[in-house]
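Troubleshooting entry. The earlier prediction with 0PR gave an output that would not parse, so I re-checked the input for stray whitespace and re-submitted. Clean input:
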Amino acid sequence: MEEKGASFERAMEELEEAHGKDFLFEDGRVLGSMCTKPMDGSVDVHSKFIESNLGNPGLYPGTRQLEEKIISIVSSLLHGNDFYGQVQAGGTESNIVAAWVARNVSGKNEVVFCENAHFSMLKACDVLRMKPVEVGLNENFEMDVGEVEDKITDDTAIVVASAGSTELGAIDPIEELSEICREKVFLHVDASFGGFVIPFLGDLGYPSKPFDFQLDGVSSVVLDGHKMGMSTIPSSVLLLRKEDDLRSIAVESPYLTSLHSTSLLGTRSSAGVAALYFAMRTLGREGYREIVKTCMVNTMYLVSEVKRINLGVPIEPVMNICGILVDDPVRVREELDGKNWKVSMSRHPDCLRVVVMPHVTRQVIDSFVHDLEDVSGG
Ligand code: 0PR
């Protein structure tokens, strides 16, 4: 660190330079991100709450109240009956906390998850010193339920299902998993991506499956505000069926305004909480339904364009994530990168992966498919 601080102008110049190198959603080149430009107004709300810290809730009763309202709104969205929860920093934190809770409540140590589960489950196992037990996929790239049954043991603490897998947006057979786990094993649903999508698919005429608390065996669900929640980074909501569950991770924090801390993080962003409240309050079900509708129409358009240039998809998309089968995904991705397209990859199966977020418009798709045809030899 320099002894004397730089001038405002100098520091801002450096920041402008850095910002200029970052990709912005509005430029329409980012096709592999589950985040998008936060909805209008949410950034102002975010800034307004930038000083507040939910880690010390006694000082910030206003944001604490917003958090309670979010829990209640999300609870009704996910067929919960005024369930319990916390606004957290993202799917990773929520998945770790779910495993932590399940371990402490059960006293058991094994985590059963699918080979295409988000890598945060590996982090959870490492941090918590729990044993990862991986299961394979069925032909639809969903968790193989038979294998889950075989791999549940007396030491299974938690089964983790995805509702919207990171790679293809597949929804695991949660109805069957719920039957298997009910009253026996903690079942956590990672709906980090799909939580703000699946509730609206049925209304829009797309096939959908139960994934939330309407299934008795589901113990917790996470959904992310900074993905399809249309809000700013960071926010996720972890919802739990049982009130006592979160208490199982409490530690004493007597010198603060609350006697116990029941969160993984100490200092917690109130800005993310306020911005998510704003997004949910102003969009309502109608607003989210419209967003999902546009993303799904564009996803289906992408699929038809991909087929038109003689490429295939591993599954018909369940939500706004689309795999694209090409001969050599690594090479094609590199060549697309050379044309400034930021596409990600799936490993189950090996293919390109496009997340059709609101910034991925029909015009963006047209221009992308044009270049894809060029580089794939499709
Ligand atoms: N669970 C699922 C199903 C996810 O897809 C993700 C993130 C997480 C949990 C973890 O969430 P956080 O990253 O919020 O902790 N999946 C995205 C992905 O891997 C994360 C991401 C987002 C990556 C934007 C890149 C990017 O530009 O695609």
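This one parsed fine. The longest strand covers residues 156-162.
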